């Protein structure tokens, strides 16, 4: 019938959108990750900003794989892949990726705030020691989200009847295997272990961003009192890097806030529409998709070095602002 043909055409269109977004995001993050690995291979070290951005790239890839891939398969009618184990795995990877994404962005903004702070500020002691704690902070984030998100798969093992691949059909089509009937203890666990830390990280991120804006404003006022020829290249590079990080953090906060609103709408709607579910996924994958291209656009030597690599078949070692 015409209705079935329209429905099939709609699913195909949505599937193509998800497939395009997923492909572009995966390629972009892979190129950026390869870029950072190449730098580490040639220089045997990474600046703390690049180290954090490398882990942000991995987190973005996890989000795209866990949200974009299952929705693409579902939209294209390949629902046979959604076993109970696959549902739990997609959910686990998605939660770990989202947690690592917000924690990495928060680390980036906080450590950059400490780095650009003047030596006579109350950050002076941390200013020297901060780079040494970057690796350990990233390690803590990975461990925290990897283990804390195991609470939910372990919890649902005792409630197998609440999990079903039907959650990915048109009947309450959520796209992921959320429990249909949430118990109070599940909601409380999720709030304490996931929501509260995310809120605290968001507040810390906004505070760090505000501090960076204030420090940049003070720096600009000081520069106005001296000639431009006396401004050190290092100071100028730090200002450009800080501005890039501010734009990146602002973009993340905007997309993350919008995504959280849509996720809450889906979670607390008895029978969410397909439009709401699809829009939620598209918005959730937007930042992980555009993030690598924004970072590469701020790395002004990337196109020239990569073109040289293509010609000479050498690794693409890049130096840039962030």
From TrEMBL:
Span of domain G-protein coupled receptors family 1 profile: 28-295
One Pfam family from the record: V1R
Entry-linked InterPro entries: GPCR_Rhodpsn_7TM (IPR017452), Vmron_rcpt_1 (IPR004072)
TM region(s), chain numbering: 12-36, 48-66, 72-93, 133-158, 188-216, 245-268, 274-295
Membrane topology term: Multi-pass membrane protein
Signal peptide: none
Keywords noted in UniProt: Cell membrane, G-protein coupled receptor, Membrane, Pheromone response, Receptor, Transducer, Transmembrane, Transmembrane helix
Gene3D superfamilies: Rhodopsin 7-helix transmembrane proteins
Localization terms from the record: Cell membrane
Entry keyword annotation includes Membrane: yes
This protein's record includes keyword Nucleotidyltransferase: no
Entries under PANTHER family matching the protein: VOMERONASAL TYPE-1 RECEPTOR (PTHR24062)
Family affiliation: Belongs to the G-protein coupled receptor 1 family.
Entry protein name: Vomeronasal type-1 receptor
């Amino acid at each position: 019938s015409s209705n079935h043909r329209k429905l099939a055409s709609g699913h195909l269109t949505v599937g193509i959108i998800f497939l395009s977004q997923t492909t572009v995001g995966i390629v972009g993050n892979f190129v950026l990750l390869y870029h950072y690995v190449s730098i580490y291979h040639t220089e045997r070290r990474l600046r703390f900003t690049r180290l954090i951005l490398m882990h942000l790239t991995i987190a973005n890839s996890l989000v795209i794989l866990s949200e974009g891939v299952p929705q693409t398969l579902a939209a294209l009618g390949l629902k046979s892949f959604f076993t109970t184990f696959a549902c739990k795995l997609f959910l686990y990877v998605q939660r770990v990726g989202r947690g690592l994404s917000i924690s990495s962005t928060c680390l980036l903004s906080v450590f950059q705030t400490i780095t650009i702070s003047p030596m006579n500020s109350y950050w002076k002691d941390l200013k020297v020691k901060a780079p040494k704690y970057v690796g350990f902070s990233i390690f803590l984030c990975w461990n925290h989200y990897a283990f804390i998100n195991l609470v939910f798969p372990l919890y649902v093992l005792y409630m197998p009847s609440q999990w079903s691949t039907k959650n990915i059909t048109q009947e309450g089509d959520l796209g992921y295997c959320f429990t249909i009937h949430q118990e109070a203890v599940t909601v409380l666990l999720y709030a304490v272990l996931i929501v509260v830390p995310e809120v605290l990280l968001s507040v810390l991120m906004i505070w760090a961003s505000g501090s960076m804006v204030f420090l940049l404003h003070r720096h600009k006022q000081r520069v106005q009192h001296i000639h431009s020829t006396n401004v050190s290249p290092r100071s100028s590079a730090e200002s450009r890097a800080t501005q890039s990080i501010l734009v990146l953090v602002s973009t993340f906060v905007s997309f993350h806030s919008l995504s959280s609103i849509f996720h809450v709408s889906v979670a607390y709607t008895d029978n969410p529409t397909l439009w709401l579910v699809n829009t939620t996924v598209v918005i959730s994958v937007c930042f992980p998709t555009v993030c690598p291209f924004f970072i590469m656009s701020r790395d002004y030597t990337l196109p020239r070095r990569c073109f040289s690599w293509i010609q000479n078949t050498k690794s693409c070692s890049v130096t840039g602002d962030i």
